[in-house]
Each structure stands twice: as C-alpha cells, then as structure tokens.
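Allow me, if you will, to draw on your knowledge of protein folds for a short while. The matter concerns a single protein, recorded as an amino acid sequence and a row of backbone structure tokens. Kindly check, if you would, that the fold set down in the tokens agrees with what the sequence suggests. You will find the record immediately after this paragraph.
***
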Amino acid sequence: MNLLRLSIHTTDAEIGIRTQNAKQEIKSPPGVLTIDQNPPQMSIHSEDGDLYIDQSDAWAAYALGGNLRWQNQIYSQSKQLALRGIARIVEEGKRMADFTSGNAIADLARDWRKGTGINYVEPASYFGVKVSYTSHPAEIEITPQPAEIHFEPQKPIVQYIPGEVQVYVKQKESIDIRVSQYDWYS
C-alpha cells in the first residue's frame, strides 16, 4: 500500500553580529618647567689682623739693643765680676810673692790686656725674634635670592574612534515541505 508522506524540514534563522570596539587614545605631552635661580648676595667684612714683631732680643745679641737693657746686662754681671776680680788680685799677689817662678810682673803686664770678662752681648739664637699675630673674625652676610619657578602645562591630546556594531542575517529561515511516496512495506 502506497501512502503519501508529508515531510516538513525547517531551518532556523541565524543572526550574525559583528562588533568593533571603540578606541580611545590619550597623549599627554610633558609640561614646560623653567626654574631661574639668581645667586645669593654675599658680603664679607674683615678687619686687618694685628702683627706684632719683637726684635729686641735679636738686637741685644748684636749689642744694638737699647741703652737701659745693655746697662742692666752689665749690672747683672757686676757681682760675679767683682768676685772674679778679687780672686784675680789674690792670685796675682801670690804670683808676685813667689820669686821662684820667673818674671811675675812681666807676665802680669802681658795678661793685663786680655779683657775684663764682661759680656757685652747676649747669645744669638733663632728665638731672638718673637712674632705674634692676632686675627679678627670675618663677618659674613648672605642674602638668599628666591627661586622663580614657571610651569606651563600642555593640554592632553584625546582621540576617540567610536565602536561599530553590524547586525546581519547570517542564515535565513526556511521551511521545506515535501510530499513523498511512502512504501510501508519496503
């Protein structure tokens, strides 16, 4: 027995969506910074130092010192010289009393010119000149100068590209209806 068969095939519709994201670009150029710094004002004031040089010992070593100092030097030796003079007179007296030693008077006359034994100059040394220096402190005054700072900002550069959405039919819907012979026994 042959029967008719009804076949219905459907195809669903498909929607396609294609998107492109939005883009945003931001560029920020650096700002311009300028700093001007003037040097500080500085003033220094200092009085002259005092230099003191004492050469009196050096001049006295060359017998060129002052008269009072020279007389004090001789005076300080006078007691010792008096004692030596007395001892010399006693010794000369003993030599003249001894007649066996030769011609004592001629020997004493010859030794008479040897000097008095007075030291008219002082010993010379490197320390005869005394030097002293007195410094005065310096007065330093500093006046600072302020810094001048200038900043000029730059505007950012913003670029925007909008996104895009495309909706389209990817596949259309369809209905396929067929009538066919159906053989039950086949």
Observations:
- DSSP finds three helices and twelve strands in the chain.
- The chain has a mean pLDDT of 84.
- Residues 67-97 form the longest helix (31 residues).
